[in-house]
Design goal:
Layout lengths: L1 H6 L4 H6 L5 E2 L4 E2 L1 H14 L6
Antiparallel strand pairs: 1-2
Length: 51
């Protein structure tokens, strides 16, 4: 996925919506801690997780 992003095959919204990851745009690498926090917040803020 990082390679596709770096080549322009995926844009920033693709990596967020399709893969649920946050990218460091300077290095085109996944930010693991930010991704973890993003995924946790989606569990409480996403309609898919509402009870």
């Amino acid at each position: 996925m990082e390679d596709k992003f770096g080549k322009g095959e995926l844009d920033s919204l693709d990596v967020i919506r399709q893969y649920g990851v946050i990218i460091d745009y300077a290095t085109n690498k996944v930010l693991p801690e930010s991704t973890k926090q993003f995924r946790e917040s989606m569990k409480t803020c996403s309609l898919a997780y509402w009870k």
